[in-house]
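Would you mind writing out a protein's amino acid sequence and the numbers that encode its backbone to help me picture the idea?
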Amino acid sequence: MKKLRYTAAVMCLSLLLGVIAPHALAAEAPELSSAKSALIGDMSSGRILYSAGAYTRSEPASITKMMTLLLAAEAAEAGEVSLDDMVTASKDCRFDLTDDSSTAHINAGETMSLKDLMYCAALVSANEACNIIAEHVSGSVEKFIGRMNSRAEELGCSGTHFMNTHGLPDKDQYTTARDLFVIACEAMRHPAFAEVVGTASCTVPATNIKDERRLSSSNALINKNSVYTDQYLYEGAVGIKTGHTDAAGYCLVGAVQRDGMNLITVVLGASGDDENRKYFDSFGDTVKLLDWCFENYSYRSVVEEGYAAAVQPVLIDGKRGELPLCCAEEINALVPNDLDVSALQKTVTLNEDTLSAVPGEGAELGSVSFADGDGNAYGTVKLVAAGEIKYEEPAEAGPESAGISDQQKIAIVLVCALFVLVVFTVGLALVRRNRAARAARSRKKAALRGGGKR
């Protein structure tokens, strides 16, 4: 009985390990303090590494300014405007602002460059700067807001809607952590955007109305002199934007580039110590997300250049064979530290099913993608011809058997069958003969025994 119980226990343990084995080394989720929505992802691939409430609608507060700055950067790249354009604030630039909203104190009639307006919007979250940018890029704030929503839709942000350029509360203005991640990934690819959101402090030159302005970023990840204290300065941080209203809570979209990683974080609806300013969970939870990622993920080689990933069928001069195909370049990706790269699944796409001519060395013949068992993609590379074609070995045959016709093959089969039949017939005759001989001997012996009795 003890042996049976031991066996049963071993079987149960084996089954349990079989169930949990693929995730046995998976990192535990980070413990956040108060964020209602949180997310960390890889900017390079767009892959989300951890999220909580990623699709929950939230008020974006001044995180809204990311879209405003993105559209300004894109308009400059498209040649619609120039970052050096000198822009004059209209008399209506403050039309939708409250008295206590964040500002760079830009007045109607004041002129500064478009790039300096972007610095005002990014560093000190100047709401009037956003309206001035909108009027310059699109001709009116209303048209610019329409452009904001169109761009969000183009990016696949199905949970986002904008009603203003700056983020002051509006019941019809909302977003999600996932959508902000998408916007941030796109925005950080534009140099002008990345420059302004990654600047800790700068000086805006004197204008026609005011002396120079000294701007200091509210982002404590990059600025030790931030209004949110110096305790959240983070190595490798390069942006992006803070936000806060009573309705939205404390919000932050962050960006960190370190150890080959390009990380984007989103924290929405967090708490903060307004009175004593000892903690702000928008930053605290962001730091927890970043620390968790650096502890459990690394940027490393997934596939080496020259890795033999597939073969290309060939049929040349009537001979079948296979041509080795190798990866044209190395794949580096952000992956879990416990990922077994040798177990990644391959998806091969060939340009042609079968080749009829020998391709040149290095000719591109397809592509291969690599993903893990959970469907996380780690990259796609070209497949190129590498090495010599390996032809199928012909069947060994003597000189007489070369070029045997179908009729000859049938004749050989019939001869073999006849031979088997003859062997079988002769064998059967021998068996019968032996049986008859044994029977005769038995009768003779019986007759002799009978004669002795008389």
Q: What stands out?
A: The domain at 27-298 is CATH 3.40.710.10 (Beta-lactamase). The first helix runs from residue 2 to 20. Residues 1-25, 397-402 have pLDDT under 50 and may be disordered. The two ends are 73 Å apart (CA to CA).
